[in-house]
Write a structure and sequence with these properties.
Mean pLDDT: 96
Number of domains: 2
Distance between the termini: 34 Å
Length: about 450
Amino acid sequence: MKKIRIGGGQGFWGDSNDAAVHMIHEGNLDYMACDYLAELTLSIMQRQKLKNPQAGYARDFIKLLGECGREAYEKKIKIISNAGGMNIRGGVEAIAEQAKAQGLEGYKIGYVTGDDILDKLPKLLEEGMTFPNMDDAGDFNDIKDKIVNANVYYGRQPIMDCIAQGADVVLTGRATDSAMFLAPLAYEFGWTDADLDNLARGIMVGHLLECGGQGAGGNFDYDWRSVPDMDNLGFPIAEITEDSLHITKAPNCGGLISEQSCKEQFLYEVHDPANYITPDVTVDISKATIRNAGDNRVEIANIHGKPAPEKLKLCIGYQAGYRVTTYLSFAWPDAYEKAKYAGEILMKKMKRKNMKYRDFRIDYLGLNALHLGCAEIDDDLLRKQNEVVLRMCFWCDDKKEAQKIIPEISPLQLNGPPGASFFGGRAHVQDVVALWPTLIDRSALDLQTHFLEV
């Protein structure tokens, strides 16, 4: 019976390359997919590209290919990644240079363009297309002149086309994370749009692998202490046949594949288990089964599919003002009281400067910076605090307003309560890019596949 092994080589932009390289060495893979894009990653990449036309893609992926590209090529392991971000052609050129440097003659790079529709938006608006916020937050007219990027989440088909034409590596922009895993499976097993249960199974392969180490004992809430050798964490690998799906990992590495670890990843970001919506299929995992099937081996079954949605998700990033975040640490005794007083001093100074801001936060690291208003704080805890870090963040519409606080921070080391320590470097103004999630007609998308042979 035909069996395909596919590994999840990256969980995000900035993830370690170690597990990906190891699974190329010892994972006995047919494919490896590497996910670099989160919701706002494309906005960050677009800002990089505006500053430097050669930027805008995940350079980490080029480094990864430098570490294991030759071995993958020799073993005929196909690699798929959305690392192209906002500069897919720039990423392709970098991959080609890397392949030439390694002497990979005949290396075939497939890539997909068309998810970036920023230039199309004015025409689509003229044609009467609307883009209401999926979270019912705000009016599109208020942000349409502030848009940084507009990218459509698409599915498996163009990636399959690249694989079918012999690509050794496939580079995309905003393909869905799971589509990078579904595409090779649908190609290998010949799944069509009518094979809803198989398509759903392929999507959940991607869902279980797309976060890298999080699917193999990293970030494991159930029992993180039980995860062996987390310093050498392996990433998950899926083993698929026509009628089975198992999750495992490469030998000779740390991490954990268990019923509990898979359950955590299985439900990650799934709002409705009976209707998990993707461009390829709507997935129903409400009756799925997950059970241990051996050492670091879990069997997944009873996944079902429903028809794909009529529209696709469009993520728009837009300029939403400016922020300044600053930190001051205070030592025992009375660390919290000192930090609180320092915050009051800064607020009084900003009031005298008539600083105009949209919002601000004052939090105390170690007390309520994570749990905010839900944090349990009592007088005894405050008295015993060895140290407290004051964090203040201002969100302004005007950059000049945000700059007003910067010269007031450092002087508090000598001009405020005792024991202050200024760290993290001088505060600076940062752009705030916000997310506008919406939907778009499939007909508005024109995806194209291309090839470059080294």
